[in-house]
Amino acid sequence: MANNSSDDTAYWSANIRLVSVCLVIWAIVSFGFGILLRPMLSGIAVGGSDLGFWFAQQGSILVFLAIIFFYAWRMNKLDAEHGVEE
């Protein structure tokens, strides 16, 4: 019984760690690059506009989509490692 509890704790700990990393990356890209660091990125041209504007309009959305696919892939792998796959 104790072994199952430690497995559950390890699974949820890995899950929360993964969610936390994904949220930090998303916050840095959307809020950091798109808002806070935009003046520093304004000198870099991307597609006729500056890099800060690109992150605010396109980049954060693309990174968010990449995070969704990464999270799904990694959770499937984590589920298999802990024997809770569907």
TrEMBL record:
Residues 9-85 form the Sodium symporter small subunit domain. Coiled coil: none annotated. Keywords: Membrane, Transmembrane, Transmembrane helix. It comes from the Bacteria. This is Solute:sodium symporter, small subunit domain-containing protein. It comes from Actibacterium atlanticum. The chain crosses the membrane at residues 21-41, 53-73. InterPro entries: Na_symporter_ssu. NCBIfam families: Na_symport_sm (TIGR03647). It holds the Pfam family DUF4212. The keyword Membrane applies.
